[in-house]
Amino acid sequence: MADTVQFDLVSPERLLASVAAKEVQIPGAEGDLTAMADHAPLITTLRPGILKVSGADGTREYVVTGGFAEISGDSVSVLAERAVPREDMTAEEFKAMVAQATDKLAHAQETFVNEPGPVDEAAKLLADMVAIGDHIGLSAN
Amino acid sequence: MPNLKDLKNRIASVKSTRKITKAMQMVAAAKLRRAQEAAEQARPYTERFNAVMGKLAASVGDAENAPVLLRGTGEDKVHLLVVMTAERGLCGGFNANIAKLAKAHAADLLSEGKTVKIVTVGKKGRDAMKREFGQYFVDHVDQSGIKRIGYGDAQAVAESILKSFDAGEFDVAKIFFSRFENVVSQIPTMQQIIPADVSDAAEAADTGTFYDYEPDEQAILADLLPRGVATAIFSAMLENGASEQGARMSAMDNATRNAGEMIDKLTIEFNRSRQAVITNELIEIISGAEAL
Question: Fewest CB atoms within 10 A around its CB: which of A44, A48, B102, B191?
Answer without folding.
Answer: B191
